[in-house]
Amino acid sequence: MKLVLAKHVVPGGTQAPLCPGAVLISEGRIVDLGPPRGLRQKYPQTDVMDLGDAILLPGFVNAHQHGRGLSQIQLGYPDDQLEPWIARRRGRGVPDAYLLTRLAAQSMLANGVTATLHANYSYGSGDYEAELRGVLRAYDEAGLRATVCVGFADRGGLIYPPADETAFRETLSLGAQALLAKAKPAYLPLDATLNLMDRLLAEYANHPTISLAYGPAGPQWVSDRAWREIASHAAGTGAGIHFHLLESPAQRQAADALYPEGVLTRLEHLGLFETSVSAAHFVQARPADIAAALRLGLVIVANPGANMRLHNGVPALADWREAGLPIALGTDNCGLDDNEDYLSELRLGGLLARGTGASTAGASSRFALAMGTRNGAKAIFQPDCGLIDRGCRADLIALDPSKARGVYLDPDCDLLDLVIARCTGDDTLMTMVEGEVRYQRGDPAGKTSGDAARMATAVRLAGPDAPSKASEIATALHTHINEAGY
Q1: How many domains does the chain have?
Q2: Fewer CB within 10 Å, N side or C side of the chain?
Q3: Quick one: pLDDT at residue 14?
């Protein structure tokens, strides 16, 4: 057993902070919490970790990201509308999925993230299973708790249905058509995807920090038949489902054409909500979509920085909050600050969720903390995370803003207001997952996310392939989007 002491313990939920506080941990779980003196007397033979003046909180949950340890800015292509931006990635070589994910995992740990959902993603190597196993290995070695999605898509890889992709391709130069023609399949066929999920569920059944979920890319990328099969398989195995939903204006228009009864109503009829489900983005949702999400118990993962950077608009978090939707938060590896500083992204989400009305003291900060912890735990299908409470996973972070940046704290300042309004990832003193310290300030892994050789290798492997042809495709997509009136 281990007794963790801190000047301040913020359990989350409805529990008041403990000042000072102590948390008792055994076998990866929280056994007890309370004043240090009482717990020391109750458990006299326990090892003690004294964090001094730190603020101890439940670890943050990055509920939607893709394991991209280097941003698109670092790789040389700029922010753009989502669909042309995706096309520009076609001009990059195939990187090492393990290495980039390991870089992302280490950076998240250094920024106080203890758990994440790795959304569907493929680098188009032609061997999706090998990519996915590299991702799983990266999270396992880093020690970050991860729900890893088995991705799938079977349509809309270039332009969304019901638009004619063949006609679009014919508008491109022969060089651009050749670039598209040599592209390897991003994902496995449907039957092979279901089979892979069965094998992975068996392999990771007893893993302490890795779990599996389905990651069908999104409605415009997945056929009705595939949705039905994935939903049935997920319900039978108990696996959760996470997907992109109404992220861009183009996706909104495609959904209107494909699902006149409403996209969530169609997915409900296909059996999707017979298991736990969460969806990312939702930027282009209308009141009817919000009402359907609320009725179906859908957890929404906001990605405000990425949504604004990729021209998709500002997520209506205040409207979602007022409606009562459970909201989590993700960085999408495209945060406002172009890094994995989760606290900065959480601050942005919290401000957007405030709206214009008055609120009781501390309500905004408590809502923001819930987005980043217990709602995130629901979104990644890990309900026993996100709180400091008896029986919960011992996923904890310690923040110490005074040592990192000399922060003055007035005695009347609310601790949680300080965390949400001012703290950043640089204030992370310690990150613990399943009772094990996975990051400590001064650790060589630290904010650099690995040594220089690893970083250089990642850049080289993700280097340019055919950027000029990819830019041509992106330009054609801009024209297509403008002509379609998106």
Answers
A1: 2
A2: N
A3: 85
476 dihedral zone (left: phi>0; alpha: psi -120 to 50; beta): alpha
Question: Within this chain, do residues 384 and 399 fall inside the same structural domain, yes or no?
Answer: no
Q: Per-residue confidence at 452, pLDDT binned at 50, 70, 90?
A: very low
Would you say 25 and 2 are in contact if contact means Cβ atoms under 8 Å apart?
yes
Residues with Cβ within 8 Å of 83's Cβ and at least 6 positions away in sequence, in order, are 159, 248, 250, 477, 481
For 427, how many CA atoms within 13 A lie in the half-sphere containing its CB? 23
Is 448 part of a structural domain of the chain? no
Dump the DSSP string for 142-201.
Answer: HT-EEEEEEEE--S-SSS-TTS-HHHHHHTS-HHHHHHHHTPPPSS--HHHHHHHHHHHH
255 within a domain of the structure (yes/no): yes
Do 75 and 142 lie in one domain? The reply is: yes
Q: Give yes or no: residues 92 and 219 share one domain.
A: yes
Residue 156 has a pLDDT of 94
For residues 283 and 249, the answer to whether their CB atoms sit within 8 Å is no
CB 101 within 8 A of CB 139: yes
For residue 309, give the CATH number of its domain: 3.20.20.140
Region 391-415: mean pLDDT is 80
Verify that 317 and 433 share a domain, yes or no.
no
Are 253 and 371 contained in the same domain?
A: yes
Tell me whether strands 47-50 and 240-245 are parallel, antiparallel or unpaired: unpaired
Is 445 contained in some domain?
no
Tell me the C-alpha distance between 186 and 154, whole Å: 9
Q: What is the CATH number of the domain that holds 411?
A: 2.30.40.10
Residue 232: name the closest of 266, 205, 194 by CA.
Answer: 194
Give kind and range of the element (H or E) at residue 309.
helix 304-309
Domain holding 474, by residue range, is 59-388+456-480
What letter does residue 298 receive in the DSSP assignment? P
Helix or strand or coil: residue 481? helix
Chain centre to alpha carbon of residue 42 = 39
14 and 69 share a domain? no
Highest mean pLDDT among 341-345, 356-360, 473-477: 341-345
Kindly report, residue by residue over 273-329, the tens digit of the pLDDT.
999 999 999 999 999 999 999 999 999 999 999 999 999 999 999 999 999 999 999
Is a pLDDT exceeding 90 seen at residue 472? no
pLDDT at 94: 84
The pair of structure tokens assigned to 416 is 């949680």
Same-domain status, 147 and 183: yes
160 lies in the same domain as 191: yes
Q: Would residue 447 count as lying in a domain?
A: no
